[in-house]
Structures are given as structure tokens and as C-alpha cells.
Amino acid sequence: MGRIRQKYIKRTALELVDRYGDALTLDFKKNREFVERVLDLQGKMLANRIAGYVTRILKQRQRVRE
Which residue numbers in the chain have pLDDT < 50? Predict the structure, then answer.
């Protein structure tokens, strides 16, 4: 069983992937820096959760392509 993510995290991550898909990578740290630059977030934890979900989405999409 995995962790359940809130809808706003999923929605934000999917929108980032749709808009900035070329700038995002499979590396969590690079995605976290990008999220912090692009979004005006209140805390570090929220940026980490969004960046983690972005990374997960990109990994899933890469597996589907292969």
C-alpha cells in the first residue's frame, strides 16, 4: 500500500508535467529545484511532495513508452 496524495498535489504535478515536460527529468533533486523556482510555495515539504509526484509521473510515462 502506498501513500495517498491530496488532489491539489496531483493536479499541480500533472499541470507542471503538461506545461514544462521538457524541463523536468527523472532526477528528484533537479525537479525539486525546478518546482521551487516556478511555483510560489509556502513550505519545503509541499515542494518535495509535488516534485516527488512529478518524478513518479515521468517514470511511469517512461515505462509505458518502452
Answer: none
pTM: 0.90
**Structure confidence at residue 1 (pLDDT):** 66
- CATH top-level class for 7-65? mainly alpha
User: What amino acid is encoded at 25 in this protein?
Assistant: T
DSSP state of 42: S
Share of the chain above pLDDT 90, in %: 82
Quick one: which of 1, 2, 41 has its CA closest to 53?
2
Q: Are 36 and 47 in contact (CB under 8 A)?
A: yes
Find the largest Cα–Cα distance for the chain: 37
CA atoms of 37 and 31, how far apart (whole Å):
10
